[in-house]
């Protein structure tokens, strides 16, 4: 079973940027489609972005398109989420995910979750 550890969260002012990283171990990283989900305060966990196992296909929720970029470095078993032009609506705990098969927007299709990293955007 692959283990995932996120880093890079923190407190940032609206309009600022953060880069999240997720390092995988215990599995063959390059074979997994990967994704990022988030859970805003008082809400359910929601899809943010996903990337196919060779990085050729990406998907984003509408509210982050043009602001967030997902990428991966298979040699370092790491997936990234570059977040620009952050707003207070982006405040959430962000989770890295390894999918069971191809990319998906569903929590049910995730095989492994990271522990989460807090992102707080102040106004």
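Q: What amino acid sequence fits the structure above?
A:
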């Amino acid at each position: 079973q692959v283990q995932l550890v996120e880093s890079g969260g923190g407190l940032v002012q609206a309009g600022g940027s953060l880069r999240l990283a997720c390092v995988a171990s215990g599995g063959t990283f390059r074979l997994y489609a990967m994704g990022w989900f988030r859970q805003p305060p008082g809400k359910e966990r929601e899809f943010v972005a996903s990337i196919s196992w060779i990085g050729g296909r990406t998907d984003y929720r509408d509210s982050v398109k043009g602001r967030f970029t997902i990428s991966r470095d298979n040699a370092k078993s790491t997936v990234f989420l570059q977040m620009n032009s952050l707003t207070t609506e982006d405040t959430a705990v962000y989770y890295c995910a390894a999918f069971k098969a191809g990319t998906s927007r569903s929590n049910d299709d995730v095989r492994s979750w990271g522990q989460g990293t807090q992102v707080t955007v102040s106004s």
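Q: And what stands out in the fold?
A: The two ends are 40 Å apart (CA to CA).
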